Amino acid sequence: MSDSPRCLLDRLSLNQETVRQWSLPELADGCARAGVRGVGLWRAPVQEYGAAAAARLVRDAGLRVTSLCRGGFLTAPDPGRRAAALDDNRAAVDEAAALGTDTLVLVSGGLPPGSRDLSGARERVADALGELGPYAAQRGVRLALEPLHPMYAADRCVVSTLAQALDLAERFPAGQVGVVVDTYHLWWDDTVGTQIARAGGTGDGAASRIAAFQLADWVTPLPEGALLGRGQLGDGAVDLRWFRERVDAAGYRGPIEVEIFNPALWARDGTDVLAEIVDRFRTHVG
Amino acid sequence: MSDSPRCLLDRLSLNQETVRQWSLPELADGCARAGVRGVGLWRAPVQEYGAAAAARLVRDAGLRVTSLCRGGFLTAPDPGRRAAALDDNRAAVDEAAALGTDTLVLVSGGLPPGSRDLSGARERVADALGELGPYAAQRGVRLALEPLHPMYAADRCVVSTLAQALDLAERFPAGQVGVVVDTYHLWWDDTVGTQIARAGGTGDGAASRIAAFQLADWVTPLPEGALLGRGQLGDGAVDLRWFRERVDAAGYRGPIEVEIFNPALWARDGTDVLAEIVDRFRTHVG
């Protein structure tokens, strides 16, 4: 069963960091005007505005919050740092619940300073998921573990492939821990189609691990630090439609969130950027 | 059976690009003085010096050429470009033979401009290996297919993991096509230990696919373009000794080549850089 073009567009969500130049009210207003029905939010601007006020603002604009970015950073071995990280993640769960989203994106964290022990760091992520999962589920929030591109393995995220993320998630109930499928991080991997099917589970949605589906394109050259070089949809190397079809085939019917970190987009008028995203989404995803 | 420290140091080879500030005569002299017995060479400086003269220079210094970098760039679909790439790779094989090395490193090439078809590009690499393998083997040279870090998948190398490289190499006789195990490109992958064992074959060396073993460390932040940010041994996130032990356990007894692209090393005195490499090699690899 494939969605009609209109139906697919109903699933489009705009991640706030894509139009960082917009305040929260501008974001709500801009999305409502463009007919975009979902937004992905980030903790810092939500905290600044107030979670309850942000929830009201978005709801009054007729939008839903599709995800909150982000918790995570769970690899510190030091007990004090670890306890602080868990506390912070419980606060993130509370914020997600206040915003009415069921999805908290987690970026696992990189290697602790001086460490070379990737598998040890991954085990600490698993331990933390075990601690946080029940707390989140009780509040109607699912932890969405996001594999990041391997170029971030040292300093940001020791979970680098969808297979790894699923290996971790599957230790816990599907209602507690899911995964993020983000084209920017996963496009290069020749096993990703197989892993998306695995993430879909039985395909009826009940046991699916796909908690979020995010889009950005891959463009080169990478900027210094490799963080802010994501491409507008259609500008790069990623076969976005192929990904959407694989995620569809795995039974996913949730939001499709556009998350592009790119200073060139931030320098432009937000309304123009969003209009371009809607246009590119129709052409390259629908 | 593990090598003694001295024996391991006998296997150390210095890739020329690590000390780009050195001319070929300086490289030969510097390695001989430092007791380093192998060098990895690059085509451009060898062509400039003359392959026969370079071979003589290196031999007279008591060194062996452990690899020639590099052929490859075999993903163009256009027949004219493809023929030119194959011709250029045959020339690279001839240069490797003239230098007396049995190892030609191949970087497969990225996506053609405007293409998003990774699997098509990978198939063209396989076709090219089939064409070049017999030509190389007749000249005593093995093609060493190098998986590069996934951050290069779009613009440089569509072969991103050791598993992918082995999937391609295993279509051809082990004497024609092997793989490169380079710590910088592979360190993040939780399947790499399994894949190194697979590459070792029966462990007696006869069917091994490990054609080269190269070392560099992973340091952050990545520089713009992500090409010249490799770290000195011991400065980064890679467990180099773990890799060396895995490669040992897979039966590999060949050269261990240090290949670091880093302008900070190029700005220093080459002799100091090489002394530091030997020291770091003892500490972090041996």
Automatic annotation (TrEMBL), chains A, B:
| Organism whose genome encodes this protein | Streptomyces mooreae
Domain Xylose isomerase-like TIM barrel, by residue range, is: 31-276
- What is this organism's lineage? Bacteria, Bacillati, Actinomycetota, Actinomycetes, Kitasatosporales
The protein's matches in SUPFAM superfamilies, at most eight in alphabetical order, are given as:
Xylose isomerase-like
Entry superkingdom? Bacteria
Q: What is this protein called?
A: Sugar phosphate isomerase/epimerase family protein
Molecular function terms, GO-annotated: isomerase activity
Record keywords: Isomerase
Instruction: State one Pfam family annotation.
Output: AP_endonuc_2
